[in-house]
Design brief:
The chain has 341 residues and is mainly α. The protein folds into two domains: 207 residues, HUPs (Rossmann fold); 92 residues, Orthogonal Bundle (Tyrosyl-Transfer RNA Synthetase), CATH 1.10.240.10. It is 54% helix and 6% strand. The chain contains 13 helices and five strands. The strands form two sheets. A three-stranded parallel beta sheet has the order 1-2-3. The chain has a two-stranded parallel sheet with strand order 4-5. Bound molecules: tryptophanyl-5'AMP.
Length: 341
């Protein structure tokens, strides 16, 4: 008989409130979170990871409102608090408690390999916060505190979810238990790495220098149209096949975005627009983006006008999250040999 424990099918994922939400966050994360919620095959838990945000400096007032803005982004996109658990990380102190234990399980050498730390700390790693370095241990605790089996993320988070598996494995091995699951990263769909609109070799991010390089979920229709119109492309029209997009990062990015927004595959988009020039494709893309993002941004503004309601939803989600987390944390303490919880 197998001794493998079976885990409740459960999805966990999170977004940092370290700036406004971008089209990358929407296509690479939130839209897919809604799909998991609606599929109904897994319990779904979504978090605003405010403790991760403070690994780099955040103005307190800005952090406070960005936390609500990310919550509003989730809700406006279709995360339904009666179907999913939605909360902010700092309200559930078990995250930091398990995060400490995982800091003692993870090895320095593992952390040294994290490309995101290297990117973020840059040349001045000596001046980076200790929290930025330990970031992946806290992320592993976010996931494993709920025994999450699946973690939908964009491509940039793959290494962190793999590290989460390493931590689970080492914990289970060191303490001779089969307590934590080996969580699967789920990186699917055409838009798991949305690129910068001015430089197709860089990721679209909330912290990029120029606003023209990203679409924000709160941009209005004119701004969206202007940004796509000015997006960098090459002189060639769209080709007949995806293979012919190789070496054309900006062109591929716009096709990926179109596919992500329309719920189609890259191949289907290429089939429709083969031979089209940018003068035809860009306005079609802008119209689609306005059609999909317009109602979300309107709803975000409506929600943001009632912060008390957002806070109420987050507090309720935190209560639900604690109910799952507490027994798992207590059992972890017992396994480790800590007295009293
Ligand atoms: P964050 O806040 O940087 O991004 C949130 C989610 O959005 C995805 N994403 C993108 N996807 C496609 N193209 C892009 N340009 C793009 N930019 C961002 C990210 O991959 C992510 O899925 N460490 C995480 C937050 C986190 C977390 C977790 C995630 C903390 N704990 C536990 C999952 C599970 C982060 O910084 O994401």
């Amino acid at each position: 008989m197998s001794e493998e424990p079976s885990f409740t099918p459960r999805v966990f994922s999170g977004i940092k409130p370290s700036g406004g939400l971008t089209l990358g966050n929407y296509l690479g994360a939130i839209k897919r979170f809604v799909d998991w919620q609606e599929a109904g095959t897994h319990e779904t838990i979504y978090c605003v990871v405010d403790l991760h945000a403070i690994t780099v400096w955040q103005d307190p007032a800005v952090l406070h409102s960005a936390t609500r803005e990310v919550a509003a982004g989730y809700l406006a996109s279709g995360i339904d608090p009666t179907k999913s658990i939605l909360f902010n990380q700092s309200q559930v102190s078990a995250h930091t408690e398990l995060g400490w234990i995982f800091s003692c399980v993870a090895r320095m050498g593992w952390m040294n390999r994290m490309t995101q730390f290297k990117d973020k700390a840059g040349e001045n790693a000596e001046k980076a916060s200790l929290g930025l370095y330990a970031y992946p241990a806290l992320m592993a605790s976010d996931i494993l505190l709920y025994h999450a089996t699946h973690v939908p993320v964009g491509e940039d988070q793959k290494q962190h979810v793999e590290l989460t598996r390493d931590i689970a494995q080492k914990f289970n091995h060191d303490f001779k238990v089969a307590f934590f699951p080996e969580t699967e990263p789920v990186i699917e769909g055409p838009a798991t790495r949305v690129m910068n609109l001015r430089d197709g070799t860089k990721k679209m991010s909330k912290s990029g220098e120029s606003d023209m390089e990203r679409i924000n979920m709160t941009d209005d229709a004119d701004t969206i149209a202007k940004k796509f119109k000015k997006a960098k492309t090459d002189p060639e029209p769209l080709p007949e096949s995806m293979e012919d997009l190789a070496g054309r990062p900006e062109a591929k990015n716009l096709v990926d975005i179109y596919a992500g927004l329309s719920g189609r595959t890259d191949e289907e988009v290429i089939a429709e627009y083969a031979g089209a020039g940018w003068g035809r494709f860009k306005p079609a893309l802008a119209d689609l983006a306005v059609e999909k993002l317009g109602p979300i941004s309107t709803e975000m503004k409506r929600l943001m006008a009632d912060p008390a309601e957002i806070d109420r939803i987050l507090a309720h989600g935190a209560d639900q999250a604690r109910e799952i987390a507490e027994p798992i944390l207590s059992e972890t303490f017992r396994i480790v040999g800590l007295v009293g919880r």
